[in-house]
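Recall that a protein's primary structure is simply its ordered list of amino acids. Everything else, from secondary elements to tertiary packing, is in principle encoded there. The following example makes that idea concrete.
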Amino acid sequence: MLALLLLFAAPASAQWKSFIISVKGDTLNRVDQKDRQQGPWVIKQEAVRGERGYEEEGYFRDGYRTGYWRRYSLDGDLLAMEQYRWGMKDGKQVYFDLEGKPTREEMWRAVDPKNPYDTVPVRDLKDPNKIVGYQVVKVEPVSRKHGTWKFYNERDGRLEATQEWVMDRLKTDGIDDALAPITPATSSAPDSATAAAAPVKSVREVTNAQRPDYNKPKKDKIQKPPAVVDFEKKHKGRKKYDVRTGETGG
């Protein structure tokens, strides 16, 4: 009987380079033959230099955190509920104080390392709020702030502030600088007050303003006095003629 149990246990132990058995008999903290973390894990961090210790529970897949993870204080209080994908934060994350009240909510978006591309809108130069098409761009495969963030009062738990994020960019009430029409650089930069008051111009408007107007009427020539006209007629064709300059002496 003992030999039969060892026969079934041998393949399981050979599958993992290391692991632990919990008090309930579960196999935890598995490391495969390629040194990759697999399956359910419990990670304990002791208090260090005044920083509170904590304990995390969650799953690994091929060395990357995946799915739901929970963080507890060493006394068992829930501190955080996080979601992971490809080893990065993805989706809603909630953080709590020691009394169990939420202090903030975060939204993240993970980028697939095997397909690090994203589709971004292309906006009209004259109307930044108008989308004229979409373009696929390559992005860094990291987790980015994306969605609504909420911040709560630590005393009474009421909502104090919210933020809207789009791929690590904080949205504002006005036109986003990245979405505003691009204008050509000028030799002299205006001061901040003038720049704030001046309306935003498109590339076409700036180019047309700098282009000469060929339909503009030519300026009238300056009329010469009659004496000058008579003088030029009398001396027309002569290479040299005497001119009284008013000089004295010799």
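DSSP finds four helices and 15 strands in the chain. The first helix runs from residue 2 to 15.
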